[in-house]
Amino acid sequence: MTAVTDHDHTDHMGRMDHTSDYTGDYTSDFETGPTKADPTPAAGREPVRESLRESVRDRVPDSGAEAGRYRDGTARKHADTGGPSREVHEATEAPEAPGAAEAARVAGATAAAATATATTAEIAAGAAAEADNVPHARVREQREPAGDDPVTGDDPVTDDDPATGDDAWDDGLIARRVTETAKAAAPAVETRGPGAPAPAPLAYDGPLRSRLDALRELVGLSRTRLDSKTLAEAGRILDEAAARRRLSGQHTVVALAGATGSGKSQLFNALAGVAISETGVRRPTTAAPIACSWSDGSAALIDRLGIPGRLRRRPVHNPEADAQLRGLILIDLPDHDSAAVQHREQVDRILKLVDAVIWVVDPEKYADAVLHERYLRPMAGHAEVMFIVLNQTDRLPGEATDQVLDDLRRLLDEDGVALGEYGDTGATVLALSALTGDGVGELREVLGQFVTERGAAARRVAADLDAAAARLRPVYATGRRAGLSEEARDEFAARLADAVGATGAGEAAERAWRRNANRACGTPWLRLWRWHQKRGVPPTGRLQKAQPEEEATARQRVEQAVRTVSERASAGLPAPWALAVREAAVRGSQGLPEALDELAAQAGLPPGRPPRPGWWPVAVLAQAAMTLLQVVGGLWLVGQISGVMAPNLGVPVLLMVAGIVGGPLVEWGCRMAARGPARRYGLEAERRLREAAAGCGRARVLDPVAAELLRYQEVREQYGRVTRTGAGVG
Amino acid sequence: MVTLDVRPQLLDTLSALRDRVAAARFPLPLAGAPRARANRDELLAQLDDYLVPRLKEPEAPLLAVVGGSTGSGKSTLVNSLVGRRVSEAGVLRPTTRTPVLVCHPEDHHWFSGMRVLPDLTREWVPHREPGDDLFLPGETPARVLRVETADSIPRGLALLDAPDIDSLVVDNRVLAAELICAADVWVMVTTAARYADAVPWHLLRAAKEYNATLVTVLDRVPHTVVSEVSRQYGALLTKAGLGDVPRFTVPELPESAWGGGLLPATAVAPLRAWLLHQAQDPGARAHTLARTAQGLLDSLKARMPELAGAAAAQYAAALRLTSAVETAYDSEHARLRGRLQSGAVLAGDALKRWRAYPLDCSAGELLDALVESLAALLLCSVTAADERVDDTWRREPASAASGLTDRDPSLESAEHRIGLAVRRWRRELEEYADDEVRELDRSVAPDSEVVAALVATGLLGGRRTRVAGERLAERIGAHGALRLRDRAGRLLTEHVDRVLHAERERRLAPLDGLDVHPEPQAELIAALSVLQKER
Fold first, then answer.
1. Strand (E) or helix (H) holding B226
2. For the Dynamin N-terminal domain, which residue ranges apply (chain B) (predicted)?
């Protein structure tokens, strides 16, 4: 059924990437759906189906399983069953439009029966296609124009011509649902195989659905970070869950698995009540899986397993047993431990697709490593959909059965398989003998109850989901807190400041300011002496300032800072995300040293002359006054010595001493007073550089890293939603 | 007919070969390493437990090991062959956890010592009344071989009931494989339900590969299907190229079920007769011995190169890891040298200090800043190299070996080591400067710290600090400046090289600790060729 797989594909892809596009597509499905859902012709065809059913019933005893095999019906089989069926066949075949209309109607009808979400319409279309291969292609043809042509969709015609588009119901989800349940109950059984109610597709309950959606989103979010191999398993589970949901929810697919010679086929036959599967002493006996369905409508499910038509059987007709096991599809698998490798491959393939597994073990092989290590341990999470059956108890004497059963339980416990005892949920362990029929009844009962619950498929998907989540755990969660701490940010800023040399620059600025202050407020004599000194000393680095600096920032420090911060940020992350964070940091750090160079050049020194404090002129004045005192005192002394003035030693000497002592005093005072402003000036220069560097680093490195961390956080939360426990049964 | 011709030289070369095999190690977790380790252990077991003792003492009793799947009735078969319960049989799987060796009382000395199976401690049970409870619960410590004696076993034959080969208990599987390695005759037991199982067939193929004397027993066959199952099994054996292997069928009898008792003597008579014939007829016995021994010797031809190949793969992987480290450090070293030359050290703080020197910055401060900057540069180089190594190693499966990647977070200690080295360089530089200054015969000797700072600046600042050289020349003369600069430069190169070398060695140390060398490969092949020559 290529069409189904095709749908499967588009469905998955569509939901992944462009949901909005896809709803349009869904709508188109619905347009065709209710359009044709008109009860009148369906009622007219009702007798036809009745007669067809009878004819097939008549044939059953004649051709045995052969007849039942095709009960679900392909067109070919309909043709074979003669007159009445040919009518149906013709009805579907006859004119182009009605044929398509019919199939499409089933689509709508089935969707209604399921009262499911919008997506189920599509599933139902698939189910309809399964009912009749021939019109299926046409359904698709029909659907496409309907989807492309919005005019038909808006057409408010509501007459009873089934061919015209009646699209009152494509405007809202709830309205659509209501009418479908109301309308479509009657034609729901259209064109089914005889007596087969259209199987309602499976519906998962809310938690499971949201977990599946979460996983889908998670896969979408992490596609860029993780390689496809890691995500393959999750993708497969999503695909299988979607494929299973599209198929019958009334049926439960149960596989009989076990080692060669454990009596799988024997048990299969015992359950079916007829020798369907070949049994024998030749090992391995069963080479290909055989399906047996207790009720109709299971064809699509069996198709999914890839079991060809010739290997599908019906159990012997037995009303009681049929009622008990209604909805069961039993699969007899080949062995998993024989030398025939292709058997194992088949088992592995089908075990991924079935809803539940009955592990058949025997007293000889129940402790085989192959069974436990290859299958039971990895599938321990699926305990709820597992039965472990100890077959061939007839070979065990007396109480040995209980002994072996206890040992088996112990082994299962060691495997981590939860056992369904004392009302817990878990695997059911039974002992029976398919040969003597001992205990088969019990299994039948348990199985009947299990099938009636109809929860196996959802539980299986939930268990798959758990397993996938557990497998993905290392790439999503590490159990450690991840994130960029404030400390790490500060350290990064400090390292960048080191790289631009903020401390050095600040200190240099401070000292330069102080030097200037000292020069301004120093005694003139000192300044004179300094000037003299300086003339003899050739200039050093100060003169280099004029040169353009190509590498003012320490590259190695920037590199190291980026490395450290990315290491800190990625510390608690799983490897792929850690790598992403590191890449983001490295990408951001490109060009960072150059930017810092530029910054350092701009922000290095405050523009213009350094600010002068208000007391400076006063100090200069005081210094000048002191000098003046000295000069005045000196002149006065000279005047006295030369006799120009009256000899009065006291005052001029006092003046001179005051000037001589006061000059350095003023200078010292100024130096003390300049300390504070100089410090402030230096700190200001340092702070400016520091902030500029930190800002640059934040914009280029920290922000991308934080964004990457945020993305991880998002994914981590999504993963948390996937792992949330609670199996869905809907 | 093959006969066994044993010369002392052969034994010598064999024990030399054994030592080579024992010395082979496969520590790197490569794809083939677990397989190679298993092969080595198996070969060693075969050499120690079988070939060497057998060649030394060809007259020792024939050892027939009964092996097979769990629940195939090995213990019941051994009990029936002996005629009394010597080995535990039961319905719980796996039943036999302690191997039991049964021999004639007079042969006991062959097995009580450590001649064969030296790894297993012996548990000697002299005699027990048949009515005794043989099996105390919880008595079995690991790796014990119970030796039983029974008169019903003829001299020159010993039976060993091995644990199963495929049960859940891993120890059992390992022990069974080891025991089978020690056998002269491999008795493979399978059942009607199991004869197509994959695991026993692996064992049969192994027997064929080693050309061991093999006999298969199809046990627990329901009466009704004896002929059909037997035919099927025969067909499978023929298809596998084992058509000529003696085949015995033991029917499933109520007695055989679940260890209740012994099978009637008639059920196991053909097998018993065959075994007796092998043990007692000198010709058959010699043939049996020679076949298994020669088969094992022949198998060495294929197995030794396999081991050698695995050893070579180990060495190649180790070489790849080593070269990744060397490449990373070499390229980082080159980059570091380039950066030193271009004056990358004189950046940031150091540059700011140099600009402020000498007005607003003292020589000591300048020197401090330079030293710190140099340490940062070195640390950056080392961590970059480590990062490159990690990157390359991440792609190598072999790097998963314990201790290679899970280093202690040694970044801090690397910083510490580099800091030490750089400070030592500074001290030595200051001593050099002191020397230079002391040699000057000027009245006003320049401050040695200033000299050191100027030399360091000139050395680390690249082209930008030519002026520092000029100033230095002014202070201690052009000649002295040049000499000092040269000496300081050499000192710097030496220290930088030493730091990088030490870090590289630290990185390589765990790899060296694994002791992966090219020699084992050559030695294994050489031992094999010597052996071939001696045969």
1. helix B226-239
2. 65-194
The answer to whether the CB atoms of B167 and A369 lie below 8 A apart is yes
Position B325 scores a pLDDT of 92
The verdict on A369 touching B (C-beta cutoff 8 Å) is: yes
Taking only the tens place, the pLDDT of each residue in B236-276 is: 889 888 888 899 988 877 665 554 567 888 888 899 999 98
**Per-residue pLDDT at B507 exceeds 60:** yes
DSSP A629-662: HHHHHHHHHHHHHTTSS----HHHHHHHHHHHHH
Residue B115 in this model has a pLDDT that exceeds 90: no
* A380: amino acid identity, one letter: A
Name residue, tokens 């677990």: B34
Torsion (CA) B20, B25, B31, B37 in degrees, nearest 10:
70
A392-395 own/partner pairs: CB under 8 Å, 24+ apart: A392/A262, A392/A263, A392/A362, A392/A363, A392/A364, A392/A433, A392/A434, A392/A435, A393/A363, A393/A431, A393/A432, A393/A433, A393/A438, A393/A439, A394/A433, A394/A435, A394/A436, A394/A438, A395/A362, A395/A363, A395/B257
User: What percentage of residues in chain A have a pLDDT greater than 90?
Assistant: 3
Is the separation of the CB atoms in B433 and B448 below 8 Å?
A: yes
pLDDT confidence band for B409 (50 / 70 / 90): low
The pTM assigned to this predicted structure is 0.72
Residues 6+ apart with CB under 8 A from B473: B481, B482
pLDDT at A161 over 60: no
B467 chain-A contacts, CB cut-off 8 A? 540-541, 543-544
Neighbouring C-beta atoms of residue A293, cutoff 10 Å = 26
CA nearest B470 in A: which residue? A540
Q: CB under 8 Å to B443, separation ≥6 — which residues?
A: none
- Using omega within 30 degrees of 0 as the cis cutoff, is the peptide bond preceding A704 cis? no
The span from the CA of B334 to the CA of B330, in Å, is: 6
Write out the E strands in A546-620: none
pLDDT value of position A149: 39
Type of residue found at A262:
S
Residue B217, beta-bridge partner list: B189, B248
ipTM of the complex: 0.78
**If we measure between CA atoms, which residue out of B41, B21, B512 comes closest to residue B308?**
B21
Instruction: Give the Cα-Cα-Cα angle B51, B56, B57 (nearest 5 degrees).
Output: 100
**Kind of pairing between the strands at B144-149 and B100-103:** parallel
Interface of A with B in 491-520 (CB under 8 A): 498-501, 503-505, 507-508, 511-512, 515
Q: What is the count of residue pairs from A and B with beta carbons less than 8 Å apart?
A: 202
Average pLDDT, chain A: 71
Nearest to B351 among A367, A498, A501 (CB): A501
Q: Kindly indicate the confidence band of residue A14, based on its pLDDT and cuts at 50, 70 and 90.
A: very low
Model confidence at B490, pLDDT cuts 50, 70, 90, reads very high
> What b-and-e string marks burial along A501-520, b requiring 16 or more CB atoms within 10 Å of the CB?
bbbbbbbbbbbbbbebbbeb
Q: Helix (H, G, I), strand (E, B), or coil: what is residue B122?
A: strand
At CA B502, angle to CA B499 and CA B504, rounded to 5?
110
Q: Which of A156, A151, A181, A177 is nearest to A166 (CA)?
A: A156
CA distance B126 to B187: 26
> The dihedral of CA A269, A270, A275, A280: what is its sign?
positive
Q: Are B66 and B80 in contact (CB under 8 A)?
A: no
- Name the most confidently modeled range: A216-230, A694-708, B160-174, B409-423: A694-708
Share the mean pLDDT of chain B.
84
pLDDT digits (tens, 9 = 90+) for A265-307: 888 888 888 888 877 777 777 888 888 888 888 888 888 888 8
Q: Do B198 and A370 count as a contact with CB atoms less than 8 A apart?
A: yes
Reduced to 3 states, what is the DSSP secondary structure of residue A256? strand
Residue A166: pLDDT above 60? no
